[in-house]
Amino acid sequence: MGQLLRVTLVAAGLYCSAAFGFTLSTTCPPGFELERGGCFLRSLYRQYDSLQSAGVGGLKSGLPALREGFTPQQIDLGRYLFFDPLLSADHSLSCASCHQPQLGFADGRARSAGVGGELLERSAPSLWNVAFQRRLFWDARADSLEAQMQGPLYDPREMATTPASLLEALRASAAYRALFATAFPGTDTIVLASVYTALAAFESSLISLNSRYDLYAHGAAGALSDREKEGLNVFRSFVARCAECHTPPLFSNQQLAVIGVPEADGAPLDPGAQRATGDASLRGAFRVPSLRNVALTAPYMHAGNFATLRAAVAFYNGGRGHAVPAGEQLNIHWHIWNPRLSDEEVDRLVDFLGALSDQSFMPQVPAQLPSGLPPVHNRPEAAAGSQGE
Prior knowledge:
Layout: H1 2-11, H2 15-20, E1 32-35, E2 38-41, H3 72-82, H4 95-98, H5 145-154, H6 163-171, H7 174-183, H8 192-204, H9 212-217, H10 226-236, E3 256-258, H11 273-277, E4 285-287, H12 309-316, H13 343-354
Antiparallel strand pairs: 1-2, 3-4
């Protein structure tokens, strides 16, 4: 009788709201429109043909393909899961512990920390515009959001849960059972595939394409200051060559690159993609990150190698391979050379990068969670000292 009542209420769209006080949104997040039951991005960049853009870093370049078409309910369920520490073994961490909204969906740490505060090898990259990325992790070892999220969920040094424990915890929550039934109608129980889909749906809604740079790119000439325009010209120039790897409008070409970054505090060289692929030519190679909201995500590089944005920019001006440790023979990317920019040009580049900040589509942090646990979306111990300030 109880199961029959549940099925009836789910069919009527009343089960979760009537019984447990949690409802899932029926509208798409900002920037998306409901079409054929799913949420699809609306952006002026979609009117541009990437193949016909004028020059490297052309303002009228189009966007790469992205993950879209998730239902509003799946996106909203993913929002609850993203902030819920129920997903970690000791209920101390959520996805948002390392991807904090107020820090550009990074965590402000040179090296992220898992359960018990254990430091990891690398920093947490920003999740803004992650829906466009074809490869995930610094070493590009995952090819989908669903594959990527299983790394931190099940790594004993990170969130340290197991597939069985995760399902047991979620299935023990009547509220979550109701929400999953709403977001995935026709399913009798919570399954891992639905968990991964919901989280991927939410992460795919984190779109940042409304910065002052974007206003300028779409024709608002006054959106950038004179100094920022000078920085944009340096950025796109064949002297600095920034745009050849950090290609607008995503500000990443999504490739792997060996740039010869020095490890922090004399640490051993991180082999990067070599470890993931076994390819010796990719020793020290890392995925080219997007520069969207880069002013919010210090410290920089794969292990917080640089405390400030200016220091990160100045590194590229230091000369090809100048920081490669003795005894290492790295295949430095051919775009890394000796631009010999002036201090003023470096400063203008930093000015321009600040114009890429946009968090106008920031999702709302849930005030309460279906698990009954308090939402976790920060790490108080990640103090500004990790940013070198």
